[in-house]
Design goal:
The chain has 473 residues and is mainly alpha-helical. The protein has three domains: 193 residues, Alpha Horseshoe (Serine Threonine Protein Phosphatase 5, Tetratricopeptide repeat); 125 residues, Serine Threonine Protein Phosphatase 5, Tetratricopeptide repeat (Alpha Horseshoe), CATH 1.25.40; 80 residues, no CATH class.
């Protein structure tokens, strides 16, 4: 291990941004006219963009809307704490929900940071190879934020760099235009990012990460030939599955051979603000290791096949002793908690729980299951079985035998649920599969509405109506 320390608060540049529209606030602001002068400034600006990935709106409460909206998770914590999450679980939220606004504004804050670097780094006299790489990293991260936005809200405004006229109050682009913009950023990143890094640079975006995102974006677009091609490339880059599923999410295996991309978090002595993403603190066992939000449902617990090792590696049950030796009290607010966010008591650190806990964004198992789904949709059943069974065998399950295409499609979808439970994939997967009303209907999902979240009413108001609302909100 370990990884580059991406400090967020020491260098954030926003002087060109319309802060009211994008709803952004920052600490220790450095005006852009006094920055972007040296190579060190260029590196620091990109580091700040990485550091923002573990900010509150992107790693703590905000992304829970995508987890709690599905059938794998519910609010958790105590009954009265953050009761607004119940509206997310029941699809009763409105455009005025501040937690949805947090997720929206958090992504645009990240996009602004990317655009600061993309616009200003080209003008710095510095090593040209490093300059190109930093711009590629920034475009990868911008694509990451836009991918989060387009899947959650549909079409959103595209900001390609800092507008020369300083006008940030622009209408939404179409969903198709946003996806095309994302793919252009990812293609540039894939062409200009290295295969890997050494030393303190471990954790930066790589060619494999860019190709993995290209595959995933195309999966959401239904471009199966492109998904198969991109995943085949990543499979040939040397990634692999760790033998033990539970170990994938422990600190000792951050940035492992299974990691495609993850948010970095490192304890920095004397700087707790920069040390903790609060990802683990928010979800840790209430009363012992955290606040207890985003807990697994009984539906998730019951969904695993008999003998699937992922069940106990995903869910902490009351009264159990974890593989790392922590006893979970029998009595408490919730019967189950997210084990993937769990940090053993001996590694909690000197700040909040999770001061060193990376957040896994994309893993090699995702590449394999995308490869399987694409191969199956292209009617290459042997290839699909080869990829999906690598994931199943690691989980302690019997390999799938020959199946009809429709049967294998369902099996791969079930495999995604088991493999990525509590990782904010379930809701988005079910919606892209066109099964929202069927799977989430009992929770209150309405077809033609809840496939996306509402555009926050505060942003619509601040735009003087330039931003249009999603249908039926």
């Amino acid at each position: 291990m370990k990884k580059i320390v991406f400090v967020l608060f020491s260098i954030v540049i926003l002087s060109s941004c319309n802060e009211d529209f994008l709803q952004t606030t920052v600490e220790d602001k450095i005006e852009s006219e006094n920055f972007f002068k040296t190579q060190e400034d260029a590196v620091a600006s990109v580091n700040a963009t990485y550091g923002n990935l573990r900010a509150w709106r992107l790693a703590a409460f905000g992304p829970l809307i995508l987890s709690i909206a599905g059938d794998d998770a519910e609010k958790g914590s105590s009954a009265g704490d953050a009761a607004f999450f119940n509206d997310i679980n029941n699809f009763a939220y409105t455009p005025s929900a501040f937690i949805i606004n947090d997720y929206w504004s958090g992504q645009f804050f990240g996009i602004n940071l990317c655009n600061q670097s993309i616009t200003n780094i080209p003008n710095i006299v510095m090593d040209e190879t490093l300059k190109t790489r930093l711009i590629a990293e920034s475009r990868f991260l911008r694509a990451h934020h836009y991918f989060n936005l387009v899947r959650t809200f549909g079409g959103v405004p595209i900001f390609n760099g800092l507008p020369a006229d300083k006008n940030y109050n622009i209408p939404r682009n179409s969903k198709e235009e946003v996806y095309a913009f994302i793919l252009a950023d990812l293609d540039f990143a894939a062409q200009n990012l290295p295969m890997n890094y050494g030393g303190s640079d471990i954790g930066r975006a790589t060619k494999g990460a860019a190709k993995g995102y290209i595959a995933k974006v195309n999966m959401y677009l239904g471009n199966w030939a492109q998904v198969l091609s991109a995943t085949n490339e990543v499979i040939g880059m040397g990634y692999n599955l760790l033998p033990n599923y539970n170990s994938v999410f422990r600190i000792a295996n951050e940035n492992s051979v299974e990691s495609i991309f993850e948010t970095q978090a490192t304890f920095i002595s004397g700087n707790c603000d920069a040390s903790s993403s609060q990802y683990s603190q928010v979800q840790g066992v209430r009363g012992q290791y955290g606040w207890g939000f985003n807990v697994p449902t009984q539906s998730l617990s019951d969904s695993y096949e008999s003998g699937d090792l992922r069940r106990d590696a995903t869910i902490i049950y009351r009264g159990e002793t974890t593989p790392e030796g922590d006893f979970i009290a029998v009595i408490g607010d919730n019967p189950m908690y997210n084990q993937k966010s769990y940090v053993p008591s001996g590694q909690i650190g000197n700040c909040a729980e999770g001061s060193e806990q990376n957040v896994r964004i994309m893993r090699f198992s995702d590449i394999l299951l995308m490869n399987a789904e694409a191969a199956n949709e292209l009617n290459d059943i042997p290839q699909a079985l080869l990829s999906v069974n690598k994931v199943r065998v690691r989980a302690g399950l019997t390999p799938l035998g020959s199946l009809l295409q429709t049967q294998l499609r369902d099996a791969i979808w079930n495999e995604r649920r088991a493999e990525f439970a509590m990782e904010s994939e379930r809701f988005l997967d079910v919606v892209r599969q066109g099964r929202g009303a069927t799977v989430f209907g009992p929770l209150g999902f309405t077809a033609g509405k809840n496939e996306v979240f509402p555009i926050p009413s505060e942003s619509i108001s601040l735009s003087n109506g330039v931003l249009a609302q999603n249908p039926n909100y």
